[in-house]
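Hello,

Following up on my earlier ticket. Below are the two sequence lines again, exactly as submitted.
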Amino acid sequence: MARREMLTAYMFVAPAILMIAAFVLWPAVITFHTSLHRTTLTDPGPGEYCGVENYRAVMSDPEFRRSAINTIVFTVLVVPAQTVLALLLAQWTNGPGWASRSLRLAVLIPTMISLTVLSVLWKLLYEPVSATGSGLFNGILTSLHLPPQPFLTSPRQAMPAIVVMSIWQGVGFQMMIFLCALQQIPAQLREAALLDGAGRWRRFCHVTLPGIAPTAAFVVMMTTIFALKLFVQPFLMTRGGPQGSTLSIVQFIYETTFFRRDLGLACAAGAVFFVGVSTIAVVLRRMLRAAECLR
Amino acid sequence: MRRFTVPAAFVAGTVLVSTIAQCNRQSGSTGARVIMVWAHHGQERENAAMRRIAEAFNERHRDQQIRIDISFFPDRQYADKVSIASASASLPDVLDIDGPYVGPWAAEGVLQPLGYLVSEKLRTDMLPSLLEQGTYDGKLYALGAFESALVVYYNRDIIENAGLDPPDRLAGAWTWSEFVEALMRVKPHVTIPLSLHMDDHSDEWFTYAFSPLIWSNGGGLIDPDSGNVLGVLDSRPTIEAVRRWQRLFEKGLAQGTSTNPNPFAAGLAAFDWTGHWMLPGFEQTTALRFGVMPLPSMGDKPVCASGSWCWGISRDCRDRSLAWQAIRWFLDPAQGIRPIVQANGAVPGRRSAFEYFPEYDRMPRRLFREQLEGGAHPRPRTPVYLSLTSALARALRDIALGADVERTLRRAAESVQRVADRQGRRGG
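Thanks for your patience. The regenerated structure is below:
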């Protein structure tokens, strides 16, 4: 009977396993295999075996290096800011009143709208001053008698502009996760701390933070992985410019595949990206786990 | 037992349904020979015209049991779709090809040469720019039913107020200095002296619209013989042409970035650097009095842009003569060119097709025809074209925003040269 039950269980999970094998594992194997061959995009099969030549080429490609630096800068700017802001918003809106509910909804709305739509919208908001008008932000600056800013048209400002937009877009989702964690902290703990005379800051540090530490670790990890996969915002708002200042690794892989038509090189870049993201995720997980143990 | 039966029945049911679906697809065939055609999803009028053209073909060839099965794919994903189909050896028989893709797809073997199927009569009837566009490495791979034309539209009210008299013949095209002088004269009276559509999201616009200035100045994008980009895209004449173009933005004669896709129709721009596709819209704008002039010349003579969608036979096509029947129908002046050109407003691709369009005997369309018959310059047909056009577009966007011309073009040239060198090693 137990054996039959096992068989039944396997049959139930079989479709999922097949799907994962067909659409995740097999493409990963093919990607690695292709990265070792000279392959043009339209070739029906892998081309000539070339060992690690594609890896050498991708690591020495100035555009890839630039895209890697840009992606890391974006991640380093977005992850801490978005996590802290999400926690503050969750703390702020963690209440039963209509004001808290409305605020939660307002912060959550951007995460429910397509990133494509938001990117186009923010491009309009960031428009510089021109003969036919200006974007909302420059309109506000001008009306306050402040100098207008080139935002997306300046190599220095384009990445910070995309960072701000991305934080605004993604913070609602992290806030909701933090809210769930906050609501699971037993009320008795806070009340006990209150009776012991702990102030707001001490309650936050000694009751709230330890209570949400595992959630915070999850949020940091997920935000990091999402941030490293940056593509839509710069692709639609700046096309990776100006002067390559917002070119991301995923856009490099996309352009190498469809413009350069160099599938071998694109797969090598994809494999390097995969290893990089996995390494960061593992290191981050260890660090976060160590931090949790120290607590 | 029941626990086992439920999932087993589910799996068996799934297999059964997919088997029936597969059988249905096969029994759907009635023995007719089908020509699979893929086309880009253009304007709805254009798609409807293509469907009617295919239906007319099927009607005419009913007795011979030959029919066209046409599928449309969104414009922007079309090339990616074809590339992926090529990798999985599932291409249709006949492909719609955007002109600049002829080079990469011919080099990669996605297309088969079709020159031996083309009669001498058809060859001499085609616009020369279309033959040039479809030729790669000395072999003809594609032919188009229509062409494009790039011109400068001007607002008559503004131009007359400024006392200007733009040319209406290619031979009388303004020099670059005359053009800049005209822009300076209209500047005090208009919001935007010249609209250059820098908001265009596609890379192709930049290569199509501004390469003629580079060619006109004696520069180039790539050496057609050696395939070298370094030393060509960053050559002196190219740098000089782009530097002169950059001054338009520095002097406030054009906008480096804009969200208004059509300031000319709104009466905000004095000149509009754009293509034939804007003409029907301008003609319907009753408040707009406009004229058309050829692009200004930076060197000895003006150079005109050209290129549009064309038809080719794919690598996976088994019966080339059958596929050619479909293409010949699409290129037929009465059956193919007339309805499609009526729908999309492009320039007919065969000389004999102009008899259906008397408007090409008078302005503004006369200039379109004159430019195309007088030696338009197609974009380079090279395996690295997509990298080239992407790098050039990126460079021109940056240059319009004030980047250093020489350094930016050098970086673009190096980037494309790296691609060319690697492609050489792959045997592309």
